[in-house]
């Protein structure tokens, strides 16, 4: 019997994992791939950010080893091993198929899938027993959704948040109902960071539309 697949999103505050701490200390946004837990207890992390200060913080974190950095398209990309068990690992252990994790000033967002209602119940119970985890949404996986889960366009969560905030605030309306500075304040980032994320998202979306 084919089980139902559901898209699930969690918001997490208060996590003390290395990426959350680095994001909290620098105020930077970090986009991470799903963590891969190894048999020796270490977790493989791959993530990127626009702020090089994140690398400096993690380089001094004894829980992280070794840290590799590269740079492309204005973003700093990192790979490392983490000895610290994060909240997302607890959800994965009970069946949460994490697709992406996003950190912004210490607050995390997990987006992924759960196959079957019984597994969903276990994931929600695990989330309920963990301090700082809040369920944001549950929705059926649409037929048009492809890998990664519920991610139809190649934009980062930070860029997606900038586009959504711009739309909801009326930034694209004529005349504009909100300025770039006002939208940036709503996102709690600088005006230049908002405009940069918006520009990169627009470029990525247009390239995909026109091929």
Question: What does this protein structure show overall?
Answer:
- Strands 1, 2, 3, 4, 5, 6, 7, 8 and 9 form a nine-stranded antiparallel beta sheet that branches.
- The longest helix is centred in the last third of the chain and has 20 residues, at 191-210.
- The protein has helices spanning 18-26, 53-59, 87-93, 117-128, 157-169, 180-187, 191-210; strands spanning 5-12, 29-32, 36-37, 43-49, 64-72, 75-82, 97-104, 107-115, 133-140.
- The protein contains seven helices and nine strands, in the order βαβββαββαββαβααα.
- Helix 5 (157-169) crosses helix 6 (180-187), helix 5 (157-169) packs across helix 7 and helix 6 packs across helix 7 (191-210).
- 36% of the residues lie in helices and 30% in strands.
- It folds into two domains: 5-140, no CATH class; 157-210.
- A hairpin with a 2-residue loop joins strand 5 (64-72) and strand 6.
List the helices and strands and how they pair.
Elements: E1 5-12, H1 18-26, E2 29-32, E3 36-37, E4 43-49, H2 53-59, E5 64-72, E6 75-82, H3 87-93, E7 97-104, E8 107-115, H4 117-128, E9 133-140, H5 157-169, H6 180-187, H7 191-210
Antiparallel strand pairs: 1-8, 1-9, 2-4, 2-7, 3-4, 4-6, 5-6, 7-8
Helix pairs in contact: 1-2, 5-6, 5-7, 6-7
- How many domains? The number is 2
Unreliably modeled segments: none
Q: How large is the radius of gyration?
A: 18 Å
Global outline: globular
Number of strands: 9
Structural class of the secondary structure composition? alpha+beta
Classify the helix fraction into a percent range: 25-40%
**N-to-C SSE series?**
EHEEEHEEHEEHEHHH
N/C terminus separation: 38 Å
Q: Count of DSSP helices?
A: 7
Tell me the strand percentage band.
25-35%
The average pLDDT is 85
Main sheet characteristics:
9 strands, antiparallel
């Amino acid at each position: 019997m084919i089980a139902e697949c559901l898209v699930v999103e969690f918001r997490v505050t208060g996590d003390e994992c290395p990426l959350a701490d680095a994001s909290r200390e620098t105020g930077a946004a970090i986009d991470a791939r799903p963590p891969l837990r190894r048999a020796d207890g270490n977790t493989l992390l791959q993530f990127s950010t626009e702020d090089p200060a994140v690398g400096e913080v993690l380089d001094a974190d004894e829980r992280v080893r070794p840290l590799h950095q590269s740079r492309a398209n204005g973003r700093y990309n990192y790979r490392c091993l983490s000895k610290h068990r994060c909240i997302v690992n607890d959800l994965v252990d009970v069946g949460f198929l994490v697709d992406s994790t996003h950190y912004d000033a210490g607050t995390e967002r997990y987006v992924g899938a759960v196959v079957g209602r019984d597994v969903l119940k276990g994931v929600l119970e695990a989330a309920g027993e963990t301090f700082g985890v809040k369920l944001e949404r549950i929705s059926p996986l649409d037929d048009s959704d492809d890998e990664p889960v519920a991610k139809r366009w190649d934009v980062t969560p930070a860029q997606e948040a900038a586009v959504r905030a711009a739309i909801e605030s009326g930034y694209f309306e004529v005349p504009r109902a909100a300025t770039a500075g006002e939208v940036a304040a709503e996102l709690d980032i600088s005006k230049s960071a908002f405009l940069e994320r918006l520009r990169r998202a627009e470029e990525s979306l247009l390239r995909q539309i026109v091929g």
